[in-house]
Amino acid sequence: MATSLALPPPESIEAVIFDAGGVLVLPDAMFGQLALRTLDHESRLEDWPRAYYSANLLLDSLELPDWGGTRRAMASAVGVPDDQLEAAVPLIEQLIASAPWVPVDGAVDLLWSLAAAGYKLAVVSNAFGTVERQLQELGVCSVGGAGIPRVGVVIDSRVVGVEKPDARIFQLALDALGVEASRSVYVGDTVKFDVLGAEGAGLHPVHYDPYHLCRGEHGHVAALTELGEWFAPATGTTAGDGDAKPD
């Protein structure tokens, strides 16, 4: 279990709020691999997740987002040669913005366990207006669907007109759940948008960093199972109104 989680006791937490991209879902590496074959470049599937998180380091280092630069960083990280990086940018953009994503390992199990323990759950994402539908279609979570983990609300920045790190987008989720920020954990995969945004809104941030890329002093987990282990005393002893995972 990670020892860097500077969080209050799990029994003092009422809500766990998740980022979507990079925490619950990831771009589909197979789609990315096929897209880059149009450039006669053969990437390795195992390189794509690390490339995604590596690109976050660039975002975190910039005062203003440079999405073209981020896409070039991803392409470079999967081995695209320098003279083809610009050609790769629209392909990476399509992967991020238009192609179906895939669930992150352990995400659904973690949501089930937290819901069953009675924690209130939500999603807050800088997204493209379709994240709620995608999460339901992928079987990750849903506000009202059956047979998958249930969350109280999915806040999509495109829909509500405000983006992380603005504290207002976090407050929308807190208001929907009826919980105080100080009794809520936020799990995200960037420093600038997620960790600093959540801190600014008064939540307890956890940085999901599967490749140990971040050197910040805030709390990190490298696997969602680590977060599940941190909540284990409460999930093992707390009775709640959460949904039970179907057999």
Question: Any overview of this molecule?
Answer:
- The protein has 247 residues and is α/β, with parallel strands linked by helices.
- It folds into 2 domains: 10-25 and 102-237, HAD superfamily/HAD-like (Rossmann fold), CATH 3.40.50; 29-99.
- The chain contains 11 helices and 8 strands.
- It has helices at 29-36, 47-61, 67-77, 85-97, 107-116, 131-137, 157-160, 167-177, 191-201, 224-230, 232-237; strands at residues 15-18, 25-27, 101-103, 120-125, 153-156, 184-188, 204-208, 220-221.
- The strands form 2 sheets. A 6-stranded parallel sheet has the order 5-4-1-6-7-8, with helices on both faces. It has a two-stranded antiparallel sheet with strand order 2-3.
- Strand 6, helix 9 (191-201) and strand 7 (204-208) form a beta-alpha-beta unit.
- Helix 1 packs antiparallel against helix 4 (85-97) and helix 2 packs antiparallel against helix 3.
- Residues 237-242 have low confidence and may be disordered.
Report the portion of residues in β strands.
5-15%
Secondary-structure content class: alpha/beta
Query: Averaged pLDDT, please?
Result: 91
In total, the number of strands is: 8
Spans where pLDDT lies below 50 across 5 or more residues = 237-242
**What CATH architecture label of the largest domain applies?**
3-Layer(aba) Sandwich
Order of helical and strand elements: EEHHHHEHEHEHHEHEEHH
The oligomeric state of the chains shown is: single chain
Amino-to-carboxy terminus distance: 28 Å
CATH topology of the largest domain: Rossmann fold
TL;DR?
With 247 residues, the chain is an alpha/beta fold. It has helices at residues 29-36, 47-61, 67-77, 85-97, 107-116, 131-137, 157-160, 167-177, 191-201, 224-230, 232-237, and strands at 15-18, 25-27, 101-103, 120-125, 153-156, 184-188, 204-208, 220-221. The two termini are 28 Å apart.
